[in-house]
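Quick start: what a row looks like.
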Amino acid sequence: MTTQPARAVVIGGGIGGLTAAAALHQRGWAVTVLERAPSLEPVGAAISLAPNALRALDVLGIGDEIRALAAWQGDGGLRTPGGRWLSRSSAEAAAARFGGPLVLLSRTTLVGRLAALLPPGALRTAATATLADPGDRTRPARVAAGADELEAELVVGADGVHSRVRRALFPGHPGAVYAGFTTWRMLIPLPGAEFASHETWGRGHIWGTHPLKDGRVYAYAAATVPAGAHAPDDERAELLRRYGDWHHPVPAVLAATRPEDVLRHDVHHLARPLPAYHAGRTVLLGDAAHAMPPTLGQGGNQAVEDAVVLAHHATDLPAYTADRLPRTTAIARQAVRVARLNMAGGRTVTAVRNAVVAALSATGPALFLRGFDGIANWRPPYASGRQPAGQ
């Protein structure tokens, strides 16, 4: 008699959800991904993948393919708005410290590669899903998707920072709160531009500019503003007002940017950690479980880690919580501390911050590299290879 594979329903078709679906499929689960958007349109322009996430992608067999997209060459680091370097490092130093490169690529590229790992028919777009029953040891979980109801041995809530699955599992939790700043992101062509990859810290403002392997430039900015604020004209004009006189290549990037190229999003995070990442047969991952400020660039990386660890513990969800909750809580708290540092707005505080960063970086590895100690050296709990569900 043929044994039917265990069923998994993933709510959310972002990077974390797709990675989880691919990892579960690799281990023999019958997967269905429900994405409410009409197509896989990634939110945000690009993503930085650190060695920890790349090792997780090794489990899926695509790590080296993604590593080949690394574009950071030579020096990079941290600057002031006037252009002075506070801290410098290089791709070689990062790879030597953490055993692999940092890779920046478009979210569209990564999402497309992850979706290609799924079996035909596994991904359903324009599918708004609701957790009807989280399930328990005696009954499957149930998910309502329009007129359909799906039963599954595992439901994965990968539905983002304002997760409806999280609210269903933990209705007493306060949910995500405003982190105190908003972000802008752009991914544009900038032919002939030459500059070192950098992040720049001002007073209550930051800016980053990074080249991609395909010749485009990824730029981002953040500023402390009231929640829900918007430019009176357009967001490109707002960026010109705030950053137009910063060092090269910031003015050149803004000159090449159209208003429609700019994405703006307020930053929300889970200030209070969840008590667990599972209930019944339902589990949370990524921003649904531990939304954090983007100041360490680890939000998507931790979602990828979550996904491969979940596939390893898919029949033992308490073990998944025990594995992931302490690590992600610590990283989220570190991201909050870094946000307080790099978004500092007072003149005196900013001057002291810059002096300390420069002094620390002059006496050892760049502060940027030190911040990844204990994060980028993570390794997954199992290697690649297709295994039956439940093993």
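That is the whole record. The CA atoms of residues 112 and 245 lie 37 Å apart. The longest strand covers residues 177-189.
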